[in-house]
Every structure is written in C-alpha cells, then in structure tokens.
Design goal:
Number of helices: 0
Strand content: over 45%
Radius of gyration: 14 Å
Low-confidence stretches: none
Number of strands: 5
Mean pLDDT: 87
Shape: elongated
Helix content: under 10%
Order of helices and strands: EEEEE
Structural class: mainly beta
Largest sheet: 3 strands, antiparallel
Distance between the termini: 24 Å
Strand order of the largest sheet: 3-4-5
Length: 61
C-alpha cells in the first residue's frame, strides 16, 4: 500500500500496487521530482533491474 501525505502529514492519496504478471517489484525505492520509483525485476530478462515510476494525478480534472 502506498500512502501520500502533505506537509502537515495529512493523507491525501492512497493506492495499492499489485505485482504484475510479467515481473515483480522489489523493496528498493526512492522518490524524486518524477514520482515514486520502485525497483522492478522483469521475469523475461532477469539480468537487468528497472525502476517503474508512479506519480500522482488529479482525478477531479
């Protein structure tokens, strides 16, 4: 589960990211200006690791 909080630590977003069928998310992650980056292992190419980036979007627009 991913919880997003504002500067006052009020929760402003919440989501569940499930494991995709073609790979797995690992426990290494970091946040930068692009969003939340989670390490991902592709089961078809296990020689490389990738990072998938998740970002917020406004659902009211």
């Amino acid at each position: 589960m991913i919880l997003v909080s504002n500067a006052k630590f009020n929760n402003i977003a919440e989501t569940l990211i499930s494991q995709p069928e073609e790979g797995v998310f690992m426990d290494a992650c970091f946040v930068n200006e692009n969003g939340l980056n989670i390490q991902y292992a592709d089961l078809h190419n296990e020689d490389r690791f990738y990072f998938k980036t998740f970002s917020l979007r406004d659902k009211t627009r």
